Amino acid sequence: HLVGGTLVAIILGPWASVIVLFLILVIQSLFGDGGITALGANTFNMGIIGGIVGFYLVLLFVRLLNNTSLKKELKVTIATAIGSYIAIVLASFICGIEIGISGTIPIEIAVPAMVFWHILIGIGEAIISALIVYYIYKTKPDFITTESILKVK
After folding, report:
1. Which pLDDT score is estimated for 148?
2. 143, 136 in Cβ contact below 8 A?
3. Helix 14-30 to helix 54-65 angle, to the nearest 10 degrees?
4. If one looks up domain 5-146 in CATH, what number appears?
5. Model-level pTM?
6. Are the C-beta atoms of 60 and 82 separated by less than 8 Å?
7. How far is CA 13 from CA 6, 85, 148, in A?
8. Any stretches that span the bilayer, and where are they (predicted)?
9. Which of 30, 31, 39, 88 has its CA 20 to 30 A from that of 69?
10. Tens-digit pLDDT string for the chain (153 aa)
11. How far is the C-alpha of 140 from the C-alpha of 125, rounded, in Å?
12. How far apart are CA 33 and CA 49, in angstroms?
């Protein structure tokens, strides 16, 4: 399923994304998806890596794309796709390390397994996040509260 950390960070801001993802994870844990004991690790992986790191990756790629003649909405869309993809793969790498450290599964199995699947999952995350940001940018750009931070030219 879509994690959406980078997507939420672009719309509401990087710090708000951590709170939003934490609340989503609490609700999911009430339904037995993730659990309370994994709440801290999941919040770190999805909220901080997915949200905050993802946001600053988007910021980096927007700044790189500002040197091109692309339209503003395309710059943000492309940067969102790249940033959300990298954030998901990075979060899966960190999660694999956490699983390995926990002793549940050896780290040499956990890390490659997590990263392999999230390299594939990240494609969907990137496409969905980019399409949503593009749609919002075209229809209601004021919903993207971080535009002043992104400094899209």
Report:
1. 65
2. yes
3. 140
4. 1.10.1760.20
5. 0.92
6. no
7. 9, 18, 11
8. 7-31, 43-65, 77-103, 115-137
9. 88
10. 789 999 999 999 999 999 999 999 999 999 888 788 889 999 999 999 999 999 999 999 999 999 999 998 899 999 999 999 999 999 999 999 999 999 999 999 999 999 999 999 999 999 999 999 999 989 998 888 776 676 777
11. 22
12. 20
Q: Strand runs (DSSP E) across the chain, as ranges?
A: none
For residue 53, how far is the Cα from the chain centroid?
8
Tokens 């990075």 belong to which residue? 90
Q: What is the pLDDT of residue 130?
A: 97
The answer to whether 126 and 84 have CB atoms below 8 angstroms apart is yes
Question: What does the block give as tokens for 89?
Answer: 């793969």
Cβ contacts of residue 74 below 8 Å, gap of 6+?
134
- Separation CA 78–CA 76 (nearest Å): 6
Q: Tokens 């901080």 sit at which residue? A: 48
Per-position b or e across 100-123, b if 16+ CB within 10 A of its CB = beeeeeeeeebbeebbeebeebbe
CB 88 within 8 A of CB 113: no
Tokens of 32: 């037995």
Conformational region of residue 151, where left means phi above 0, alpha means psi within -120 to 50, and beta covers everything else: left
Which amino acid is residue 60, in one-letter code?
L
